[in-house]
Write a structure and sequence with these properties.
about 80 residues; alpha+beta; 2 helices; globular; binds zinc ion
Length: about 80
């Protein structure tokens, strides 16, 4: 499995979901166990398109450790190797 890293755009965390450009990707990071996963936009839409990522984050539970201690970020997934 190739390494990936997520390049967050912190500014977008305060925007309502519907205001975030559609090309943006999402990731959810658990602050308890450190796992970082894809967050499909559809899953966020199901909660509320009017809420910001900061407001949505506490609604999600980590699938690995079960803690409700998540940070949802908008940005881009990149391959592990730095660009040259
Ligand atoms: Zn966790």
């Amino acid at each position: 499995m190739p390494e990936r890293r997520f390049l967050p755009t912190p500014l977008l965390a305060g925007y309502a979901l519907y205001q975030i450009p559609y090309h943006c990707q999402f990731a959810i990071e658990c602050r308890s166990c450190g796992v970082l996963k894809d967050m499909p936009r559809e899953d966020l839409n199901q909660v509320s398109k009017d809420m910001s990522l900061k407001e949505l984050s506490p609604r999600f539970r980590c699938t690995l450790c079960g803690e409700k201690n998540a940070t949802i970020m908008a940005g881009d997934w990149a391959n592990g190797a730095p660009e040259r």
